[in-house]
Amino acid sequence: ACDESTQNKVAKKLGYSGSLISQVLRRNYAAKLGGVEEAVRGVYMRQTVECPALGTIPSNECRQWRRKADRFQGTNTLQMTPEQHKIIEMAQGGEPPAEIARRLGVHRQKIYKTLRKARDAGTAIPLFRRGGPVVDTGMKRLSVDRTTYAALEPIAAARGLSV
């Protein structure tokens, strides 16, 4: 892969640093190569694995989900599964819990429990009213002068935002 591209591009595609890829290629990498090998198999050899929550996915994506789960340890030491991550992602996108439950085919209580644990662990998740829109967006209001407003308005409009 490094013959067709740069080491940094390959590293970015694999989810590792350029220096790590350089060490692996020079056979100077002191740690185990299992993770790097798995990433190469998933990205360049198209190896897939069966995930209980996401179905058939590339092996490197499975590894990325496992790494996210390892990092997601809150006050309740919640180990995040791909399904829990999807629940949190959907909630952060403004999807109400009832709709998340319907789309994922799980009981609403599982959604509420996952969101509660994630909030307790410090994850920013909006609050919902029964069947209604997001109550707390976490956005702050601020005042800007007309010159700044005039400069920001076209940039925001180009991004689909308002100022």
From TrEMBL:
One of its GO terms (biological process) is DNA-templated transcription initiation. One of its GO terms (molecular function) is sigma factor activity. It comes from the Bacteria. Gene3D superfamilies: Winged helix-like DNA-binding domain superfamily/Winged helix DNA-binding domain (1.10.10.10). Residues 79-119 form the RNA polymerase sigma factor 70 region 4 type domain. Pfam families: Sigma70_r4_2. This is Sigma-70 region 4 domain containing protein. It comes from Profundibacterium mesophilum KAUST100406-0324.
